[in-house]
Amino acid sequence: MKNKRWQKTALVSLLSVTMLAVSACGGSNETGGKDNKNPIKIGVVTSRSGAVEAYGTQEINGLKLGIKYATGGTEEINGRKIQVLVEDDAGKADEGIKKARKLLEEEKVDILQGSASSAVAQAIAPLAEEYKKVFMVDPAAADEITGKNFNKYVFRSARSLSQDAATGAKYAVENLGKTFFHIAPDYVFGKSSAAAWKESIEKSGGKVIQEEFAPVNTQDFTPYLQKAIQSKAEVLIITWAGAGGATLLKQVNELKIAEKMKITSVIPDIAGIKSFGDAGVGMQGPAPYYHALPQNDVNKWLVENHQKEFNSPPDLFTSSGFVAGVALVQAIKKAGSTDTDKLIAALEGLTVKGPKGDYTFRKEDHQALQPMYIVKLEKKQGVDHLVPVLVKELSGQDTAPPVTVKK
């Protein structure tokens, strides 16, 4: 009898200890409570070197400012500090995978964010699924990320290439010409862009006569530009990302392509706009963001604080990085936790106020629907680059890409 009583007491004690241990482990994701002061870790894998290093810098600056804005300057949620840990992928997929694993396994990050390269973002997405962590994509824009290669852990605050095309193609067909020649880089970003533009152009009543994909390290674009002239297309579409774009645009100027055909392109960051030179005067195309376009309090805050911290205005990818920060803070607050399933539930359908207005993470594919712009590049006294002047603003619904997620 005594032995049975001892066994019962021991069992109760063991259960109590087990429940306390489970409670302690389960509480590690919660944002509230006096006992949980562990930081919330956001692991960023992006380009800190390589062809799109500048995009990575814009992304990180935007992310940090978005967190600052959404937390009222405290950079913490319910007493837990938010840590942003950055790793350089150098624009290489294998390096991105290695750095993401480091953040997931060694740093035990709660959330992944990145990358400036679409190829890297696509390589990391399966890891988000493997480790069951939310992956907030920005600036990578390839459609496949929230399309055929989508998994439920992936969200994107950046615009997609189909949103660019939905913004620019219809306008180009109606205002620039009916026939098109497209030059793009020979990797996932360029192929995805070409496919998106072709679909939108044909849907709008135009025709893509020819597509040419140049290696990313191309130094002489003359053969491609000569083919564009020989095609007799009315409009040249230029898609490029990173340093090679300056070389392409320089040669567009040297060959006086603008005198032979209209040119349209997604308006790049400020460094990219400078590359257009005088040949860019009057160019019309879609613009994901330019700091002087949106007129709202959020953008005003971003412009003022970016100028204060970095002595420059926010750039192309600063805005989507900012939205990533705001959305993650709001989702964590809404979920009351960094638990992945709760974060996914909080992010799906979430609408946040960003620099361009409302951004809504569509439930079906987690793509952020957002306002987009058609602009015209003009000279402005006192500004050292051509300035995007608003022609037309389109809503997030107007430019919503098709849902292509595999069921």
Automatic annotation (TrEMBL):
Residue ranges occupied by any Leucine-binding protein domain in the UniProt entry: 39-380
Entry-linked InterPro entries: BCAA_transport, Leu-bd, Peripla_BP_I
Top-level division of the source organism's lineage: Bacteria
PROSITE patterns xref list: PROKAR_LIPOPROTEIN
Keyword annotations: Signal
Pfam families documented for this protein: Peripla_BP_6
Statement: the UniProt record of this protein carries the keyword Signal: yes
Signal peptide from the UniProt entry: 1-24
UniProt similarity note: Belongs to the leucine-binding protein family.
Name of this chain's protein: Substrate-binding domain-containing protein
Native species: Effusibacillus consociatus
